[in-house]
Amino acid sequence: MAARPRRTERCKTLRLACWNADGVRGRKLELEHILGQHGVDICLLSVTFLNPGQAFRLANYVCHRTDRSTTGGGTAILIRRGIVHHSVPVPGLNHLEATAIQVTLAGKPVLILVAYLSPSPPLIGADLTACFGGGLPFLMADDLNAKHVDWNSRLNTRRGKLLRDNADGNSCLIFGPDSPTNNLYNPLVTPDVLDIVITKNLSFPVYLTSCSALSSDHFSLTPLVAYPFSTHRIALTSGALTGPASKPSWKN
Questions:
Q1: Between 170 and which of 51, 89, 132, 183 could a Cys-Cys bridge form, CB atoms 3.0 to 4.6 Å apart?
Q2: How is the beta sheet containing 173-175 ordered, strand by strand?
Q3: Does 6 fall in a domain?
Q4: Is residue 192, in this structure, part of any structural domain at all?
Q5: CATH (domain of 136)
Q6: Are β-strands 206-211 and 75-80 bridged in parallel, bridged antiparallel, or unpaired?
Q7: Helix crossing, 125-132 with 158-169: angle to 10°?
Q8: What DSSP designation does 7 have?
Q9: Distance CA 67, CA 76 (A)
Q10: C-beta separation of 240 from 88 below 8 A
Q11: pLDDT value at position 182?
Q12: What is the mean pLDDT of the chain?
C-alpha cells in the first residue's frame, strides 16, 4: 500500500488589529462589524475603560483582559475562537498596563502583547524589560505616549528616546505607520504617531497600515503577518514571563 502523503500546514496571513479604543463598551457594535468585515484574527485593545466585573464579550472571540480597579486605562486581547493559544501573565510591571497571550506560529511559540502607558507616570526600563525579557519571539502593539522620528513621529520626546534605546539594547524592531495615528478631538493639537508595533526575533515579515474606520481619538493599526499557525481546539492554560510579580500602580 502506498505511503500516506505527509500533512503540512498551509501558510496563511494572520490579520491583527491594534486600537486605542478610548472606551470599548460603547463601541462594541462597530468593533464587531469591523472585525468581521476585515477578517481580523487577533485584536489588541488599549484604553478599554473596562472595570473588574464588567462583562464584555464578542461572538466568535475569546477575550483576555487587564482591567484597572480605578477609572480609565485597561488593555485586552480578542482572539478568534479556534486559534490555539493561552494567556500569559506579565509580572513586574510598575506603571505599564499589559495583556499577553502565547500562540504557535510556524511551529514555534510567539508572544502577542498589547501595552499602554498614560501620559502622567514615567516610562521606566523595568517595565520594558518585563515585556521584552521573556525570552520568546514577540509582537507587541502599544501606545506608550512615546514619540520618536524613528517610527515616524514628528519629534523625539524623553519617553521616545528611552524606548528606542531600550529596544535597541534588546534587539527589538519598532514599526510605525507613515501617517498619524491619533485623531484628536482638540483641533489645536497636532496629530502624531503614538500607536506602534514592537517585534523581536520574528522569522516572518510584518506589514503595517493605519485605518480610520473606528470612532475613537486614535486610528487603528493593522499589522499583517504571514506564516502557518495552529487552528485546533483552544487550550486555556497559564504561563508567565520571567521576573518578580508586583501590582502595577497607575496614575491617570
A1: 132
A2: 85-87, 97-105, 108-116, 138-143, 195-200, 173-175
A3: no
A4: yes
A5: 3.60.10.10
A6: unpaired
A7: 40
A8: P
A9: 8
A10: yes
A11: 74
A12: 80
CB 130 within 8 A of CB 241: yes
Task: Report the C-alpha gap between 90 and 63 in whole angstroms.
Answer: 16
Cell numbers 531600550 label which residue?
Answer: 166
**Is the separation of the CB atoms in 101 and 90 below 8 Å?**
no
DSSP for 159-203 reads HHHHHHHHHHHTT-EEE--SS--B--S-TTSPP---EEEEEES-S
pTM > 0.90:
no
Q: How far is it, in rounded angstroms, from Cα 39 to Cα 87?
A: 22
In the predicted structure, residue 212 carries a pLDDT above the cut 80: no
pLDDT of residue 9: 43
- Domain, as residue range, for 87: 12-227
Helix (H, G, I), strand (E, B) or coil at 63: strand
User: Beta-carbon neighbour count of residue 8 at 10 Å?
Assistant: 7
User: What is the per-residue pLDDT for 36?
Assistant: 87
| 38: nearest Cα among 216, 209, 233 | 209
Q: How many Cα atoms are found within 13 Å in the side-chain-facing hemisphere of 62?
A: 16
Residue 191: which residues within 8 A CB-CB, separation 6 or more? 180, 181, 182, 183, 184
CA distances from 103 to 4, 18, 88, 90, 127 (A): 29, 17, 10, 15, 22
Instruction: Let me know the angle formed at the C-alpha of 25 by 83 and 122, rounded to the nearest 5 degrees.
Output: 85
* Sequential DSSP letters for 29-40: HHHHHHHHHHT-
Distance CA 151, CA 243 (A): 28
Does residue 180 sit within a domain? yes
Whether 243 maps to a domain, the answer reads no
User: What digits encode the pLDDT tens for the residues 154-168?
Assistant: 999 999 999 999 999
* Number of structural domains in the chain: 1
Cell digits of residue 138: 514577540
